[in-house]
Amino acid sequence: MTTAISVSGLVKTFGRTRALDGLDLTVEQGEVHGFLGPNGSGKSTTIRVLLGLLRADSGSAVLLGGDPWRDAVPLHRRLAYVPGDVTLWRNLSGGEAIDLLGRLRGGLDPARRTALLERFELDPTKKGRAYSKGNRQKVALVAAFASDVDLLILDEPTSGLDPLMEEVFRECVAEARDRGATVLLSSHILSEVEALCDRVSIIRAGRTVETGTLADLRHLTRTSIDAELAGPPPRPGYVHDLAVDGHRLRCQVDTDRLGDLLTELNTVGVRTLASRPPTLEELFLRHYASDAGGTTDPGGTTDPGGATGPGTGEPSAAVAR
Amino acid sequence: MSGQALGAPGVSAAEPATGRHDLAGTGVLYRLALRRDRIALPVWLYVGTGMVASTVFSFRKLYGDAASRRTFAAGVDGNGSLRALYGPIFDGSTTGGLTAWRMGVFGAVLAALMSTLLVVRHTRAEEEDGRLELIGAGAVGRRAPLTAALAAALTANAALAALVAATLLAAGQDAAGALAFGLALGTAGLFFAALAAVTAQLAETGRAANGLAGAAIGAAFVLRAIGDSGTGAGWVGWLSPLGWSEQVRAFAGNRWWVLLPPLAGAALLTALARALVGRRDLGAGLLPQRPGPAAAAPGLASAAALARRLQRGPLLGWTLALAAGGAVFGGVAKGVVDLIGDNRQMAEVLARMGGQQGVLDAYLSSIAGVFGMVAAAYAVQAVLRMRAEEVSGRAEPVLAGAVSRSRWAAGHLLFPLLGTALPLAAAGVTAGLAEGLALGGGTGTAVGRMLGATLVQLPAVWLTAAVALAAYALLPRRAAAGWTGFGVFVLVSWLGPVLRLPQGVLDLSPFSHLPHLPGGRFDAAPLLWITALTALTSAAALAGLRRRDLG
């Protein structure tokens, strides 16, 4: 596997704000890479550096084997970009904008263009200003997916799309990957990243805090266990949020200690066992929890339905890494 | 419990037009409008008041005694083309009367433009950009934005009327006449503010709403010109709101009742606009919008092609405007020459601006200079289109294509550089034709002379554009910087000769170095070094643009 995007130690300041503060990002060729972070964490700035629109203060960025600043024009022939906030020319129709954007990077596949217009249910004859936010986004998406490019850079591309169109978008990303394209998908929607991405990088305040495959990252998270045992439950010291009620035990366990816990439970005898795998959301919350300062305790120890509710994300107070 | 809570909004929705909720939030929006216009509005008022002030003071200086004023007025009255342009002189015996003649129509047009742009800016343009949606979701009545915009327009026109009246008073003119003149301008502005409120309901875009209202101003000017030209159809002038403003006859009897038609018209149009607001959806217009092509023409395949598509409309508009200006100012050449021939001081001022012995040549050369500055304004606007593209985010996907910054910029720069020749040539041809026809000389030579006079402005226009480009490329955060060079050049070259500024200051403007054509000696040297300076400035600007952050 060769590397499509390789960024290390990227720094970009605007006046006094340090938008990027030593960011690292590696995207292998042919993968769909999730680029996760809250608003203002530096996702768009990184993408603009990769597009040669901004010049980094320090650090290195290599895009498809070239320098994104110096080799912008030849590199741009091989990539398509969808901005998070698409603005169109008021006197150009959507169809004209699609063709123009496609031709600027060397043309698009007319058959695929027609098919995409149909799938995204986009009327190409409207003028730029008549489109809603979602439809403007569709214009940029059709132009991007109809091009035969090696790399798709998508900056929060689904923020204006309804769930049906999000589904179409996911299919299009999967098809692009099947064609062999690399996709960098910036997002703050975890379910989207979970559904689409092979690997993810999580950034915060201009710095990469976590990167790896979803399986890798889940190792860093905790699994929720709800078990009914044959006898009095054990009380191991390495579990979190332990709640014991007669023969019933509920707790969270670091994924790498899961095996140990199961062995201990087995020695007592297990009647029922429910376990819930960690979600990316938990991982995400963990990395941003310190900002919140432990304000959200979902109360997992008292709420019996907590194991299935959305609020069982690890409370911030328990972050110990 | 919940049924009641749900029912409450339904009740108020059932009687939308009668409730006083309709205007909720007007005060806040009114203050917001004034705050957003805290720069633009004072500039408009300053320009309007300044024009009246400079007119009244120069008339006082140039035509100091009643006899010279009467001669002047008689000259104007005998000239149909001057009457068509400025209107008739109702009482030429006083300086106030002459000022009312000279600035009556143009002051009313200025008030109309100010009011139109203001109302559309705070209604349709807001709606188009989606900001009104945000506001409409607050506790804001359906008619509040329109009412707030009209209230802001009323404030602006009242301020204009007061300032103009105060200026004339300060110049020692009759108080009643000063007030009548100020009100004539203010009521004209108010009428067109209400008209713009209607066009803002009809059109779906701010640009189209401004276009419709602008066309109405143009039509009003033409009707008034026909009425005033003395062809026996004087009643036609009464069809025009600009005609009403002049029929107030400030300093010549002060017919106060003529202030009523524009006020009544404004009230009617306001009622119409308010009714239309209640009938349409947010964001929709009443005029249908045509769909565009589903696919782009094969030619729309490069950044340069996109720039052509974006810039051709404004270029066409400026060309038509300058062609019309050429026809008007060329057409009145004879009248001006007759008038100025009688006034030594005026001829001297013109001669300083034009440097010519022949009054005709001096006049033609000075209007060629004006055309050059108008073309420079177009050039700055065309350069700053790049900034608009960048700031709006539309440049980003283009530059994310296989397009270098230099190519992207070159596509746009074609217009301020080559494109500016078109409006200048158009003005030269129409001015030459009109002048030749009016004076009965050969039109061929006249056209050739005027074409040379307007095209010789090009290097100075280019340098103005290059300065704007440098400001855009090197000071991207300073929105107004692009206009600074233009402002300095115009101030120096336009007002410098009148204010007798020292030559060192005059030399700051490239327009001061151009050969004074027609009539003057043609000297290629300044044209060459101004062009060379343009090339250097542009090259430095483009180098800066390639280096800086974009977006």
What does this entry look like structurally?
The complex is a heterodimer of chains A (321) and B (551). Chain A has two domains: 214 residues, Rossmann fold (3-Layer(aba) Sandwich); 89 residues, 2-Layer Sandwich (Alpha-Beta Plaits). Chain A has 321 residues and is α/β, with parallel strands linked by helices. In chain A, the strands form three sheets. Chain A has a six-stranded mixed β-sheet with strand order 5-6-7-3-8-9, sandwiched between helices. In chain A, strands 11-12-10-13 form a four-stranded antiparallel β-sheet. A three-stranded antiparallel β-sheet of chain A has the order 2-1-4, with helices on one face. The longest helix of chain A has 16 residues. In chain A, strand 8 and strand 9 form a beta hairpin. Chain A has ten helices and 13 strands. Chain B is mostly helical and 551 residues long. Chain B folds into two domains: 261 residues, no CATH class; 246 residues, no CATH class. Chain B is 74% helix and 0% strand. In chain B, helix 10 packs across helix 11. The longest helix of chain B has 34 residues. The N terminus of chain B is likely disordered. The chains are: A alpha/beta (321), B mainly alpha (551). Chains A and B meet through helix 2, strand 5 and helix 3 of A and helix 14 and helix 18 of B.
Topology:
The complex is a heterodimer of chains A (321) and B (551).
Chain A: E1 3-14, E2 17-28, E3 32-36, H1 43-50, E4 58-63, H2 72-76, E5 79-82, H3 94-104, H4 110-119, H5 133-145, E6 151-155, H6 163-178, E7 182-187, H7 190-196, E8 199-204, E9 207-213, H8 214-218, E10 222-229, E11 240-245, E12 248-254, H9 258-268, E13 270-276, H10 280-292
Parallel strand pairs in A: 3-7, 3-8, 5-6, 6-7
Antiparallel strand pairs in A: 1-2, 1-4, 8-9, 10-12, 10-13, 11-12
Helix pairs in contact in A: 3-5
Chain B: H1 2-14, H2 26-36, H3 40-62, H4 66-77, H5 80-86, H6 95-122, H7 124-128, H8 131-136, H9 144-170, H10 175-202, H11 206-228, H12 241-247, H13 260-279, H14 303-331, H15 333-341, H16 344-354, H17 359-392, H18 395-399, H19 405-419, H20 421-439, H21 443-455, H22 458-474, H23 481-499, H24 503-506, H25 524-547
